[in-house]
Write a structure and sequence with these properties.
2 helices, mainly alpha, single chain, 0% strand
């Protein structure tokens, strides 16, 4: 393995600008949207089939 001096260490560039926090937030948004879609779809199906709970 080659030893790297301090000048070469300063010139090393790597990695992405996307952090784990950004990816986690994006997946949470997707989960919320999927849950909302599932709820809306279920509500539409229940209204169409007439399976609503009475409010009395």
């Amino acid at each position: 393995m080659k030893k790297v001096d301090y000048v070469e260490l300063d010139s090393i560039v790597g990695g992405d600008s996307i952090s784990g926090s950004v990816i986690n937030a994006f997946t949470n948004i997707i989960k919320v949207l999927m849950d909302a879609g599932r709820s809306v779809g279920s509500a539409i199906r229940r209204v169409a089939e007439g399976n609503l709970c009475p409010l009395e």
